Amino acid sequence: MGFSIALIVFSLLMMMLVLMHKGKGGGLSDMFGGGMQSSVGGSSVAERNLDRITVVVGLLWFACIVALGLLMKLDS
């Protein structure tokens, strides 16, 4: 139960963090306005920190999926 709740939380965090990233040009981000210049854009330090946080949350998300898979396998 705890891993399921953690997976939901990490999934929501991943969605939020990915949507916060600046579009690098080309692709779907330009289609939805990601290509427009924004005055809200952060500095390079903020972008690097956002990248790091996204990677950490992604690894935790993956770990929750693996743990849930192992628990389901052991329960059956």
TrEMBL record:
Membrane topology, from the record: Multi-pass membrane protein
Cellular location(s): Cell membrane
Keywords tagged on the record: Cell membrane, Membrane, Protein transport, Translocation, Transmembrane, Transmembrane helix, Transport
Keyword Protein transport: yes
GO-annotated cellular components: plasma membrane
One of the GO biological process terms: intracellular protein transmembrane transport
Residue ranges of the TM segments: 53-72
UniProt-recorded Gene Ontology molecular function terms: protein-transporting ATPase activity
InterPro entries tied to this protein: SecG (IPR004692)
Protein family according to the UniProt entry: Belongs to the SecG family.
Function: Involved in protein export. Participates in an early event of protein translocation.
NCBIfam families for this protein: secG
PANTHER family in the cross-refs: PROTEIN-EXPORT MEMBRANE PROTEIN SECG
Designated name of the protein: Protein-export membrane protein SecG
